[in-house]
Every structure is written in structure tokens, then in C-alpha cells.
Design goal:
By secondary structure, this protein is an alpha+beta fold. The chain has two domains: 91 residues, no CATH class; 71 residues, no CATH class. It has five helices and five strands. It starts with a strand and ends with a helix.
């Protein structure tokens, strides 16, 4: 959140001094105008209270469990506004290729299960090399992994995605 800086922050920059050439302003009901500042390494999303462009600015960060992530994001934002490369997203917000692949499999497994597919049918689609007899299937690690993917997908669907958005 961008707020008017207290008077003691004498060196705080003003909105008019910042590089907002790639910013888009849009209304956000109930929380004031929102600013989307495009960045190739990850866009910056800001909420601004009613501030004057000549007013010194401050970033408001709540002292909560996600403070470290917010502080890293604020540093990226500051670098970007001062004309430097913002750098990569905070590690807590960046998905590794392995994690991304697991999330894709989770959604596909959940979609299959929601459509009435059996775990074995889902595994056949997700793990193409999967060819097991009925006996092998009962103790298969692929079976256990498929069941976990469906279960974790259901957890995500019922609010678990909020942990992902918070970097956990």
C-alpha cells in the first residue's frame, strides 16, 4: 500500500518523481485506486489511498507472518521505481519448475476425478509409462502419488490456494 509519508520522512519521493511509464491505474472498489506496474520479472500490484502527486510517499507493511515477503516485494518495487531492474520475485512467491509441474498434475488429477475417472485412469493419463496389473496397482507408488494429487487438489480447491498465494 502506498500512503502519504509522515513529515519526518523528509527525503521520501513523491509520486511525480517516480518512473511510472509502464503503470496502469484502475479503480478497486472499497480500497482506493490500484496501480499495476508492469515488470518482466513479476508485476507490482499496489493500492494507493487518496494521495496527491506532490505528496511524499511511504509503503505501508503490516507486521504479520508475511512481513518478510512483503519487505522483499517492497524492495523490488523500490528498485523498479528508481529505474533499476527489480530483480526476481521473492523466493517464497516464485514457483520452481518441479512445483509448477506438480500443480499442473494436481489440477489435471482433480479435473479427472471430478469427471468420474478412477485413480487408475487418472494415473494412466498423468504418468504415460504407467502399465501395471491389478495386483501391482494396489501397492504401486504411482497409485499413492495419484491419490495424493487428487487429495491435494481438493484441498487447494477448498481454500488451500491461499497458502500458495501467501508464499507457503
Amino acid at each position: 500500500m502506498l500512503e502519504a509519508a509522515p513529515a519526518v520522512f523528509r527525503s521520501a519521493r513523491r509520486l511525480e518523481q517516480l518512473d511510472l511509464t509502464h503503470a496502469m491505474l484502475h479503480a478497486q472498489p472499497g480500497s482506493g485506486p490500484a496501480i499495476l506496474l508492469a515488470d518482466p520479472d513479476g508485476d507490482h500490484h499496489l493500492v494507493a489511498s487518496a494521495i496527491d502527486s506532490a505528496q511524499p510517499l511511504a509503503v505501508l507493511l503490516p507486521l504479520d507472518d508475511d512481513f518478510h515477503i512483503r519487505a522483499e516485494a517492497a524492495l523490488r518495487f523500490q528498485r523498479r521505481l528508481f529505474g533499476r531492474a527489480a530483480g526476481p520475485l521473492p523466493r517464497a512467491l516464485a514457483l520452481t519448475p518441479r512445483h509448477r509441474q506438480r500443480l499442473v498434475r494436481m489440477v489435471r488429477a482433480l479435473d479427472g476425478r471430478s469427471s468420474g475417472a478412477t485413480y487408475r485412469e487418472i494415473a494412466g493419463v498423468l504418468f504415460e509409462s504407467h502399465q501395471q496389473t491389478a495386483t501391482e496397482w494396489k501397492t504401486s507408488s504411482i497409485r499413492a502419488q495419484t491419490i495424493r494429487l487428487v487429495k491435494d487438489g481438493q484441498t487447494m480447491m477448498h481454500g488451500g490456494y491461499l497458502r500458495l498465494l501467501a508464499g507457503r
